[in-house]
């Protein structure tokens, strides 16, 4: 058991987050003001200074270097752009003060360059809209989202409450003069709604929120087995121009292990249907570090997904969070797969670059295998503005549905205020009037 002493509780949190990236949680302890600890960090320095001292110590005892250095935050791209806006040399700062590797700095540079091609200065009156449908056909092993197995009565009751919230948001937007710049329908799996419910829902979204300033409208399909010709026609009719179909892996054994009840063939069929329907941009999510997967498995999946022809491919790194079933059944998977993930991400960078994709947004999560990152790749001109804005945190996001968290942006102070909904969908239905009152107070 290694011991580190820090000057106060806040330093304990920051140094603790870094130590978790080097060692299992039961292999170290952090104390406040413990003079006989193996590393004693004194008072008077800032968090980054303390993290640098801890980094040197942890590197010495483990022999490890971290690609993201002392950066424990989830938005390194935002830091890169902020340093640049302040007139600093972001690459020098990231290398010398944060110990970020040359490879990750090069990745951030590419992301920043690609964003310039789509990003416009945010209009303070424009907002991003998020609407969540918290149902899926089954629950994936690694899932930590608001997701419940869908039934018709549950979906019907949920939509009644959601429609009330959507009507209220329309009124709030009218009163505050806001319009929707982008609309994102997520979850859950929105396409787990049957055609009747999906049609009622998406037509209402169109009627209430789509306007001449709306630049993109995305519907997350997610689970390939929920995609039908009829649902794609409804999505198109509602005016959505982006859809996500998420294979995660093209290997049947892996899909079985992670609780996805669909086959690789259903993935192929869903892409063929989306192609036939003529949805503008299709995104495909893949995950690196899934249980038992080797770098070769990942290369095969990625190669097949590229051949299926999506305009966007998002390469995630497995994150095993406390709300997932995987944390109980296989808590060590992320640590075990860390070296494989490094290889998989290197392969993804090479293969996607060779296929003509560019990285356009990037974020990190806690509890990720190897503490790496998720990267959204796009064919030129197909980046999602909604995804970029979410990472930059420079626009108000009004979020509706169970588990949705609105973020109100105050440009003068460059800060966000959160207005959360409850995440349990039954409690959301019961307390819908309170959710609406929270929004009125928080947004108006
Ligand atoms: S499809 Fe997504 S939201 Fe649904 S259970 Fe799987 S990980 Fe969770």
How do the strands of the widest beta sheet line up side by side?
12-13-11-10-9-8-7-4-14
Helicity range of the residues?
40-55%
Largest sheet: 9 strands, mixed
Parts with pLDDT < 50 across at least 5 consecutive residues: none
In the CATH hierarchy, the third-tier topology of the largest domain is known as: TIM Barrel
Mean pLDDT score: 93
Supply Rg.
Answer: 22 Å
Number of strands: 16
- Catalogue the ligands: iron/sulfur cluster
Tell me the structural class.
alpha/beta
Q: First CA to last CA: what distance?
A: 51 Å
Strand content: 15-25%
Q: Identify the CATH class of the largest domain.
A: Alpha Beta
Number of helices: 17
Q: Kindly report the name of the CATH homologous superfamily of the largest domain.
A: Aldolase class I
CATH architectural group of the largest domain: Alpha-Beta Barrel
Instruction: Give the overall form.
Output: globular
Counting structural domains, the number is 3
Textual characterization of the structure:
By secondary structure, the protein is α/β, with parallel strands linked by helices. It folds into 3 domains: 1-65, no CATH class; 67-110, no CATH class; 126-400, Aldolase class I (TIM Barrel), CATH 3.20.20.70. 44% of the residues lie in helices and 19% in strands. It is built from 17 helices and 16 strands. It has helices spanning 9-22, 47-62, 76-85, 90-96, 102-116, 152-176, 195-209, 229-237, 252-257, 264-277, 295-308, 326-329, 333-336, 338-354, 385-392, 425-430, 432-443, and strands at 2-6, 28-32, 39-40, 126-133, 135-136, 148-149, 179-187, 216-222, 242-245, 281-288, 312-317, 358-363, 374-378, 396-400, 405-410, 415-420. α1 packs parallel to α2 (47-62) and α3 (76-85) packs across α4 (90-96). It is globular and about 65 Å long. The termini are far apart. Bound molecules: iron/sulfur cluster. Residues 136, 139-140, 143, 145, 147, 187-189, 222-223 line the site of iron/sulfur cluster.
């Amino acid at each position: 058991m290694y011991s580190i002493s820090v000057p106060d509780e806040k330093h304990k949190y920051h140094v603790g987050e870094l130590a978790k990236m080097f060692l299992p949680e039961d292999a170290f302890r952090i104390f406040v003001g413990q003079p006989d600890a193996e590393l004693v960090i004194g008072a008077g320095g800032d968090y980054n200074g303390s993290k640098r001292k801890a980094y040197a110590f942890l590197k010495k005892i483990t022999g490890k270097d971290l690609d993201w250095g002392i950066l424990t935050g989830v938005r390194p791209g935002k830091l890169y752009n902020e340093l640049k806006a302040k007139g600093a040399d972001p690459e020098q700062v990231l290398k010398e003060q944060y110990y970020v590797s040359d490879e990750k700095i090069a990745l951030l540079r590419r992301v920043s360059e690609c964003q310039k091609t789509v990003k416009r200065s945010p209009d303070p009156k424009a907002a991003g809209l998020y609407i969540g449908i918290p149902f899926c056909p089954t629950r994936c092993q690694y899932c930590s989202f608001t997701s419940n197995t869908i039934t018709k009565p549950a979906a019907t009751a949920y939509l009644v409450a959601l429609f009330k919230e959507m009507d209220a948001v329309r009124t709030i937007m009218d009163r505050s003069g806001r319009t929707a710049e982008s609309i994102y329908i997520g979850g859950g799996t929105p396409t787990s709604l049957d055609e009747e419910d999906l049609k009622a829902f998406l037509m209402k979204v169109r009627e209430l929120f789509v306007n001449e300033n709306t630049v993109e409208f995305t519907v997350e399909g997610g689970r390939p087995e929920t995609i039908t010709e009829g649902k794609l026609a409804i999505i198109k009719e509602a005016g959505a121009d982006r859809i996500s179909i998420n294979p995660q892996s093209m290997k049947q054994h892996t899909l079985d292990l992670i609780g996805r009840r669909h086959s690789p063939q259903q993935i192929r069929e869903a892409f063929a249907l989306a192609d036939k329907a003529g949805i503008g941009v299709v995104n495909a999510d893949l995950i690196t570090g899934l249980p038992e997967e080797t770098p070769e498995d990942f290369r095969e999946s990625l190669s097949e997904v590229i051949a299926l022809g999506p305009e966007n491919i998002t390469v995630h790194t497995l994150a095993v969070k406390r709300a997932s079933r995987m944390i109980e059944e296989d808590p060590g998977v992320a640590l075990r797969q860390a070296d494989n993930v490094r290889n998989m991400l290197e392969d993804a960078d090479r293969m996607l670059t060779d296929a003509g994709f560019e990285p356009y947004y990037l974020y990190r999560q806690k509890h990720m295998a190897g503490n790496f990152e998720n990267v959204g790749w796009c064919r030129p001109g197909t980046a999602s503005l909604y995804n970029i804005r979410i990472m930059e945190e420079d626009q108000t996001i009004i979020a509706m549905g169970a588990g949705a968290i609105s973020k109100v942006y105050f440009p003068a102070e460059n800060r966000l205020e959160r207005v959360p909904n409850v995440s349990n969908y039954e409690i959301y239905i019961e307390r819908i009037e309170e959710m609406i009152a929270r929004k009125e107070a928080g947004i108006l």
